[in-house]
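Before relying on records like the one below, remember that each one covers exactly one chain. Contacts with other chains, cofactors or solvent are not represented anywhere in the record.
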Amino acid sequence: MKLIIHGGFFSESLTDPETKFQKQKALIKIVQKGYDYLTTHTATGTVVYTVSLLEDDPLFNAGLGSQIQSDGKIR
């Protein structure tokens, strides 16, 4: 079994190195939790669970249907 996620990319070239590092750590944590969930749940349930982890993490804008702009506002 494999689980692949991504945290987006649109404006990553402008992101400071510390934020990039924090995002990488968060993605590793989320994919590990998602994989652990997958071992005892369906693939569909795992997708819902893992996406909810991304949505709940303030480093990402998953589920908002928009982009975080340079001024920090979501549009």
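The two ends are 36 Å apart (CA to CA).
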